[in-house]
Amino acid sequence: MPQQAEPALRAVGITKFFPGVVALDGVDFEVNKGEVHSLLGENGAGKSTLISILYGVYAPDRGEIYLRGRRTTIHSPRHAAKLGISLISQHFALVDSLTVEENLRLAGIDVEKAEKIAEQLGVEIDMRRYVAELTVGQRQRLEIVKSLARESDVLLMDEPTALLSPREVKSLLAVVRRLAEMGKAVVFVTHKIREAVEVSDRITVLRRGKKIATYERPFDEDVLLAAMFETSVKRRVHKAGRAASEVIYRAEGLRGSRVREATIELRRGEVAAVLGVAGNGQEELMELLAGFKKPTGGRIFLDGQELTGRPFAEFLKKGVAYIPEDRWRALAKELSVLDNFKIRCVKNCVEALQEAKKELDIDFPSPSVRVAALSGGNQQKVILAREVWLRKPYVLIASHPTRGLDVETSEKFYALVRSAVSGGAVVSLEDVEEAVEKADRIYVMSRGRIAASFEPPFDIGEIAEAMTQ
Amino acid sequence: MRLVQRPSPSPLSYLYAAAGSLATSIAVVFAFTGDPEKSLQALSTVDPWLVARIFVIVGIIAAASLLSYRSGLWNIGQEGQAVVGALAAVASQNPAEALAAATAAAAAWALAPALLRAFAEVNEAVTTFLLSLAAVSVARYFVEGPLRDPGMRGFIATYEAPALSIAAAAAIFAAVLAGIAALYRTRLGLSLRLLASGEEVVKYAGRSPRVYILLALLLSGAVSGIGGAVEIMTREAGRYMTLQQVSTGFGLYGISAAWLGALHPIGSAAASLYIAWLYQVAINLKILGLPAQVANALVGTAMAWGLAGYVLHRYRVVWR
Amino acid sequence: MALEALALGAAKGAVPTLLATLGAVVGQRAGVLNLGLEGVVYLSAAVAAALGPPWGYIAALVVGTAYNLLYYYLSNDMALNQILLGFAFTMAAYGIGSQLAQPAVGKPFEKPPITGLEAFAAATALAVAIHIMLRTRLGLAIKASGDDPASLDLIGVDVYRVRKIAGVIEGVLASAAGAYLVLAYYGSWTESLVMGWGTLAVITAMIALWNPVAAIGASLVPSIFITLSYALQSYLQASPHLLNTVPYLVSIAVLVAVQLATRKTRGKTPAPRWLAKPYIREER
C-alpha cells in the first residue's frame, strides 16, 4: 500500500476519562483512503470509546483530530455524518418503530439511490418492513447501504461480527474488503485476532486504554496475541469426562414469546452452555429457566420438585441464581456498591464486600461510591461476587456472564463457578470457542428451539453448522 | 453544548445551585423594588417565629416529597394531600386525633394514584396533580357543607382545628426526619430505594414492585397530610378554612426544598430553612406594596436550581 | 333543544382542549412529558387577558411559546427532570400570570363572533394538518426522538434540536388554547378560571394514544363533562364544588380504561418508549 500524503482520518493523543477509569490514555490512530485499519484489543481496551469519539458521540478530554489533514472538532454524530464519517456500531442507527423506508428518509437518504446501491452490493432490502422485524444481519447490511448512499469516505465499524453467524461473518469480511477497494477508509474494530488478520492492511493493538503498537502485513498472530494481553493469560480448557451424575434440574418443553420449545437438563457438577446467533431466543430462555419470567407452557423441575410458575422469590429460596444479560436488571443504578451488595447480603456486608473486592480484584474507591460510576467490567464483577461468590448458589443461570470481561477475569469466573456452585450452571454464550473450552454439554438454539445438543468431544464445525440451521 | 460525566460526583453542585437561587432571588427583589435600600429591607427583615413555623411546615412536606422521589415516583400532589390533611385536622377534637386523622386521610387521598400506578401503569405525576386541583374543590364543599361552623354566622368557614405549639410541631418534624433516616437503613428501606432504579431491580431482588410503589406513595401522601395538619394547627389565629383560603402553596415549597436539599433528609431540612426565608421575603415585599405572587416564581426558580444541582452532581457542562 | 345547546357548548369547550392536546401529542411523541403545559396555557391566557383583543392574541402566542421553549431547553439540553421542572414552570406561571392579569379581573371582553362548531371545525382541520406533519421527515424525527433518541442521534439528526422544534409547535398550540380560553370561550378572566386545562390536555393526549386524529375525540371527553356539569347544576342539588371535580375524575377514569384496554396488545402500544426520560449523549 503506497503511503499517501495525508491520512483520511488521524487522531493524536486522544484521552478520555469516565467515572472511575481512564478509558483512553493519549492514543494515536490514523486510517488512509482505500485501507482497512483494524483496532484490536480485548474487552475494556478502549476500542469502542475511540470509535465513539471519532463519531462525535463522546467529546475527548484531550487530543486532536485531523480530517484529510485539517484539524477538526467533531461536535456531534450529526456533525460527523456531515463530514463524511459513518458509524456502523453494535447499536444500530436504526429506529425499530419505523419502516426501512422511513428510516432512510429520516437519515436524509434518497430511497431510490439506496435501492440501486443495495442491488449493486447484491443485498435484498424490503422497504416496507419495520426494522424491528429485521434480523441482525439484515440491519447491518442496511447500515452499510446507508453509509454508501451517503457517500461517506470514512467508515467506522464497531465489532460488526459480534452478533453474526459464522456464515454471515464470512460474507461481511468480503464486503469490508470490497469497501476498501472502492476507496473508502475503513476502521474495523474487533477482539478476534483471526478476523483482524484476514481483513486488515494494518492493525493497531489497544490495551487498557493505551496504544501498544501498529503492525503491518504480514502479521504474526503470536505477536498480536502478546500485544493484546499483558501477562499472557492462557485460556484453560476444562477437561470434561466425569462419570455421568444425576439430573438435578430439568426444563421440559418451555415456551414463551420468543422461545418456542426448549428442553434442557442439568446434571450435578455440570456446566451447560447455550449457544446461538443473537436474537434466537436465548435471552428469554434464560429468564424462563431462572424463573424470572413465567413460561406460557412447559414445566420446570428442581431436584424432582416442580417449580413451574412459582414466583422468582421461590426460585431464589431454592438456591437458583440468575445473571441477566442486561446489567441494570441486577444492579440498582442509583445506589452505592454496598447497597447493591446488600440486595443479597444480610449480615457483615461491609466485611464481605471488602473480601470480595480482594478475591475478585474489583476496583472501586469506597463501598459508598455509586455503582454506575464503575467501569462495565467492574460492574459485572460486583454481580458475579454477589450472585456466585457470596450466595454460593445451587443452580446458576447466567446470560453472557463473561461479556465485557477481560480474559483473566473470565477465567476467574469459570474457576469460581466450579468451586462455588454446588449443583450446576447453565450459561448462555456468544463465542463457540469459549463454550467448547468450558462446558460439559452444549445446547444450540435456533429460532426459539433447542436445535441440537452436543457432548464432548465437541466438533466446532458441527456446532457452527447447527447454529445457522 | 453537552453534558459530560464527571470522574467522580461533585457534592459542591448543590452549593452552586443554592448560590444560583440566592443570586436570582436577590436580582428579582432588586428588580421589583428598584432601590437598594428597599431591597435590603425586604431581604433582611425576619420574623423568627414566622420563619420557624414555615420552616417546620416546608420541612415536613419536603420529607414527604423525598419519600416519593427517592423511590423514583413523581408525586406532585403534596398540596392536595396537605389540604386533605388540614381538613381532617379541622374535623378533629384534639391534636393527637388531628394528626392521626390527617395521616390517614391524606394516605387515603394518595391511594387512588398509587393503585393506578401499581396496577394500571397510569402516570402518577398526572393523577396526583389533577387530584390536587380536585382537592381544592372538595375542600370548598366541606367548608360550605359538612364542616361549616354555624357559630360563625354570616362568615363561611369551618370549625377551628385544635392548636399545636411550634415546639411540638418541631418535634414532629424531627421525628419524621429520624423516621426516614432509620427507615432507609432497613431492608424495607433498601427495597424502597431500589425502586428508583426501576421495577425490574426490585423484582430481581425477589420482591414485588407493586407493594413498594404503594408503600412509597402512601407514605409520601401521609406525611404531606401531617404537613397540612401542622400548617393549620400552628396558626396563631384563624385555625379554620374559608372558601378563598384553601390551598396554601406549601406543596411547591416542600418539593423545592427536597430537590435543593439533594433529596437527603438533612439536606432538605437545611433547604427548607432557605425556602422559609424566601417566604419571609415575599411577605416583606407585600408589606412594601409589591406583588407577593412573586413568591411562587422565586420558589419555582429555586426548584429549577435544585434540579440543576442534581444534574451537575454527575455531569459538567462543556461548551463547544 | 337542550341537547343541541349541550353539543354546541361541548364543541366550543373542546376547542382549547383539542389545541392543547395536539400540542401535548407532538411533545410527548418527541419524548417529553411536559407538565409545564398547564403553566403555558395559564400564562398565555393571562397575557391575553392583560392586553385584551386584538394584541392579546399575538402577545399570548409569543410569550407562551417562548416560555415553553425555555422549558424544553432546560429539560432536554440541560436534562433537568421533565416532570418536576414542568411542575415548577406551572407554579411559576400561576404566580406571574395571576399578577399580570390582575387588572383584567371583572372586565368582560367582546367575544369574536364565531360559533362553537366553526371553531371546532377549524381545530379539527389543524388536527389533520398535524397528522400529515407527523408523516414528513420532521414528523419521523419527532417520533424517533420519543422512541429511540440514541439511534436518532447516531443517524445524524440532532435530538435536542428536534425536541426544541416540537417544543415550539407545542408552545404555539398551547398558547393558542390559552388565548382562546380567555378571549373567545369565557370572555373574562378570574384567577382560577383557566386552571387545569393544560393538565387535562396532558391526559387527553395519552387517551388519544398520541394520535392527532384520535385527539379530536379525546378532547371531547372533559369538555362534555364540563358542559354537562354546568347544565346539571340547575337540576341537581349537588354542590357546584363537587361538580367541578367531575371532568378531572372522568378524564382519569377514561385514561385508565384506555390504558387497560391497550394493555392486551402489549408491544404494539404506540406509547413513546422514552417518554419522560432524559436523553444524555454521554450516558453509559
UniProtKB/TrEMBL annotation, chain A:
A single Gene Ontology MF term assigned here is: ATP hydrolysis activity
Short name of one Pfam family:
ABC_tran
What SMART domains does UniProt report for this protein, alphabetically? AAA
Where the record annotates domain ABC transporter, the positions are: 9-233, 243-466
List the PROSITE patterns: ABC_TRANSPORTER_1, ABC_TRANSPORTER_2
**EC numbers, comma separated:** 3.6.3.17
Q: Which InterPro entries match?
A: AAA+_ATPase, ABC_carbohydrate_import_ATPase, ABC_transporter-like_ATP-bd, ABC_transporter-like_CS, P-loop_NTPase
Which enzyme class, named as a word? Answer: hydrolase
Keyword annotations for this protein, in alphabetical order, are:
ATP-binding, Hydrolase, Nucleotide-binding, Repeat, Transport
Q: What CDD domains would the database entry show?
A: ABC_Carb_Monos_I, ABC_Carb_Monos_II
Name the chain's protein: ABC-type uncharacterized transport systems, ATPase component
* Biological source species: Pyrobaculum oguniense (strain DSM 13380 / JCM 10595 / TE7)
TrEMBL record, chain B:
Keyword rRNA-binding present in the record's keywords: the answer is: no
Where in or outside the cell it occurs: the entry states:
Cell membrane
Q: Which CDD domains match?
A: TM_PBP1_transp_TpRbsC_like (cd06580)
Q: Which residues cross the membrane?
A: 12-30, 50-69, 163-184, 211-230, 250-278, 290-312
Q: Name one Pfam family in it.
A: BPD_transp_2
Q: How is this protein situated with respect to the membrane?
A: Multi-pass membrane protein
Q: Which InterPro entries match?
A: ABC_transp_permease
Q: Which GO terms describe its molecular function?
A: transmembrane transporter activity
Keywords for the protein's UniProt record, in alphabetical order: Cell membrane, Membrane, Transmembrane, Transmembrane helix
Q: Name one GO cellular component term.
A: plasma membrane
At the top level, the lineage of the source is Archaea
Keyword Transmembrane among UniProt keywords: yes
Looking up PANTHER family in the UniProt record yields:
ABC TRANSPORTER, PERMEASE PROTEIN, GUANOSINE ABC TRANSPORTER PERMEASE PROTEIN NUPP
Q: What is this protein called?
A: ABC-type uncharacterized transport system, permease component
Biological source species: Pyrobaculum oguniense (strain DSM 13380 / JCM 10595 / TE7)
From TrEMBL, chain C:
Family matches, as InterPro entries: ABC_transp_permease
Short name of one Pfam family: BPD_transp_2
* Compartmental location: Cell membrane
Q: Does the keyword Iron apply?
A: no
Q: GO terms for CC?
A: plasma membrane
User: What membrane topology is annotated for this entry?
Assistant: Multi-pass membrane protein
One Gene Ontology molecular-function label: transmembrane transporter activity
Q: Which UniProt keywords apply?
A: Cell membrane, Membrane, Transmembrane, Transmembrane helix
| Residues annotated as transmembrane | 6-25, 32-51, 57-74, 83-102, 114-134, 165-186, 217-236, 242-261
Major subcellular location class: membrane
Q: Give the protein name, as stated in the record.
A: ABC-type transport system, permease component
Native organism is Pyrobaculum oguniense (strain DSM 13380 / JCM 10595 / TE7)
